[in-house]
Write a structure and sequence with these properties.
It catalyses: [thioredoxin]-dithiol + NADP(+) = [thioredoxin]-disulfide + NADPH + H(+). This is FAD-binding protein. It comes from Nocardioides albidus. With 568 residues, this protein is an alpha/beta fold. Helices cover 29% and strands 22% of the residues. Strand 17, helix 13 and strand 18 form a beta-alpha-beta unit. The N and C termini lie far apart (52 Å).
């Protein structure tokens, strides 16, 4: 057992309503160190002492008006002291109408995370629902897990170890990392029959008690060992719908398909949630006024789909799709087995384009990361970090990284972010003192420091071609979308960029009786496409979810046609 860590701090700041806050937060005192402060100055002292003592601060809750300092000024100071803490403003009911309007622009710019009405009595569960959401988000993205049902045994600096940690984070599996010479490392090594190959993954919970210590060579292999293989599907079973990809489109299709009685199988090559699962905070998704992380959204959707009967197989990319002929089912081929289905939804999404600079490609996992890599963000403390990309994913990554890094610089080739990023993110970036945007700039080279980690980048102004070498402790690449659907047969037509054509966009020779396929249908009957992989899609989480749900109604229409034989 690990010794219990000091509980994270919740700081309550108010001059006139500290007693109300103290009463409301009494319920959290078992798990958190709840500390009161009557002024901004007292709050500063508490936070400075917490930093000196190495304590984590999970949440700062402040009255909208303080006796000794303007609240927004104090909030700026607190963010500098504890950048990873969540920030909540409470407003007494008699001032809520006026102050919620005046504070809303600062909320939009990310000065704090949300504001709420000061509770008027006991059991204000709507208030506490918001508080628990914030603490849960903090725990998932900042805190070190106190549970180690999965132990990663590894020396420092192994890229695969970081990839496995990111995989487990996105799966919502609590884990901790230990060196080989620790007691936990020695326990795992004692369970091996031969020499170790790091990283080791020791599954310690009762669910995995009969499994040996694993030595995975990839996250896909680990996923297959934990979640099973497609070959687990009974040989004689033909499912109603097989979904390829578990991003927002695939997850929505799984939820709607399974809830409407369709036998549903989802095959995901890597991690549930897809590219969206790497987003630290999605603030413009319908129904989540305080935002939701892509990881949490993916986890909830997966649980929801499983509740309705959907089956998930993780870690096995589809290598071939054999369309059924003469009414036969379609066959999806993976290295772990085959799945036969009456209909198929292609929702495999896209991947970030490669930078193509050999010296930096060699450092992937050693300071260079494709995607937001939320796990790696925790290791960027006191580093100068660069984010390449101008889309929402890049903006969300920069905001999250700024909680840890000393500085974050967004590199874009355009003059500004206006054409590619949502305004709420542009505003939040502009108000964050740790984030800068460097326009008209590209990376032309980079290399490692003495430890083998990323140490420097060479930047080039795309207008003047003037170059500059800068120190860099982290590089996060979110540069455009590249489809990966070479496994699709030629009959499933694609555009010049490789995205799947559907509906009226398919070539006219594929039309039947002068009519195009349905909006999300491909040239091949019974094969549909949704989300980012589809040509002309919006590349947004909400639109992908909508397409995944809409595809299910088209599947129903297709299945109501001539019955597809179920024999092989």
């Amino acid at each position: 057992m690990n010794p219990p860590a000091s509980p994270p701090v919740i700081l309550l700041v108010s001059g006139d309503h500290l007693d109300v806050l103290a009463e409301q937060f009494h319920r959290y005192e078992r798990e958190y160190d709840v500390r009161p402060a009557g002024t901004a100055a007292e709050a500063n002292a508490v936070l400075k002492e917490a930093r000196r003592s190495g304590l984590q601060v999970a949440l700062v809750v402040t009255d909208s008006q303080l006796p000794d300092e303007q609240m927004l000024v104090a909030m700026h100071d607190w963010r500098s002291l504890v950048p990873t803490a969540r920030r909540l403003v409470v407003i007494p009911i008699d001032r809520f109408g006026e102050e919620s309007a005046s504070l809303r622009p600062y909320l939009q710019k990310g000065k704090f995370d949300t504001f709420l009405v000061l509770p008027q009595g006991r059991r204000d569960e709507e208030f506490h629902y918001a508080v628990v959401e914030m603490l849960s988000d903090w725990g998932a993205t900042v805190a070190t897990s106190e549970v180690d049902s999965v132990r990663i045994i590894t020396p420092e600096g192994l890229p695969l170890a970081l990839a496995i940690r990111d995989f487990l984070d996105r799966q919502g599996m609590p884990h901790r990392t230990y060196p080989p010479d620790s007691p936990q490392g020695e326990e795992a090594l004692a369970r091996l029959d031969g020499p170790p190959s790091y990283p080791l993954v020791h599954l310690t919970s009762g669910v995995f008690a009969d499994r040996p210590v694993l030595m995975p060579t990839s996250t896909r292999e680990l996923g297959a060992r934990i979640y099973g293989r497609p070959s687990d599907v009974e040989v004689d079973t033909v499912v109603d719908i097989a979904v390829v990809g578990a991003g927002p489109a695939g997850l929505a299709a799984a939820v709607y398909g399974a809830s409407e009685g369709l036998s549903t199988v989802v095959i995901e090559s890597e991690v549930i949630g897809g590219q969206a699962g790497t987003s630290s905070m999605i603030r413009n998704y319908l129904g989540f006024p305080r935002g939701i992380s892509g990881q949490r959204l993916g986890q909830r959707a997966r649980i929801q789909a499983i509740r309705f009967g959907a089956r998930f197989f993780t870690g096995w990319p589809v290598v071939e799709l054999r369309p059924g002929t003469d009414g036969r089912p379609h066959t999806l081929v993976t290295d772990g087995g085959e799945v036969r289905a009456r209909s198929v939804l292609v929702a495999s999404g896209v991947a970030y384009r490669r930078l193509g600079i050999t010296t930096l490609e060699d450092l992937v996992g050693a300071g260079v990361h494709y995607g937001a890599a939320m796990t790696a963000a925790r290791e960027m403390e006191e580093r100068d970090v660069y984010v390449v990309g101008g889309g929402n994913s890049a903006g969300q990554a920069a905001v999250h990284l700024a909680r840890f890094a000393r500085s974050v610089t967004i590199l874009i080739r355009r003059d500004d972010l206006a054409a590619t990023m949502s305004k709420y993110l542009i505003d939040e970036i502009a108000w964050n003192p740790r984030i800068d945007v460097r326009p008209c700039t590209e990376i032309v080279d980079g290399g490692a420091d003495d430890s083998g980690q990323l140490g420097w980048l060479r930047l080039c102004d795309v207008r003047t071609r003037e170059e500059e070498r800068v120190a860099a402790g982290g590089l996060f690449l979110l540069i455009g979308a590249a489809p990966h659907c070479d496994w699709l047969p030629a009959d499933v037509r694609r555009d010049e960029h490789g995205f799947v054509l559907t509906g009226r966009d398919v070539p006219t020779e594929c039309w039947v009786d002068g009519l195009p396929p349905e909006n999300l249908a491909t040239c091949v009957p019974g094969i549909f496409a949704a989300g980012d992989i589809r040509s002309g899609s919006m590349k947004r989480v909400a639109s992908a979810s909508g397409e995944g749900a809409s595809a299910v109604s088209l599947v129903h229409g297709y299945l109501e046609g001539p019955r597809v034989p179920t024999s092989p």
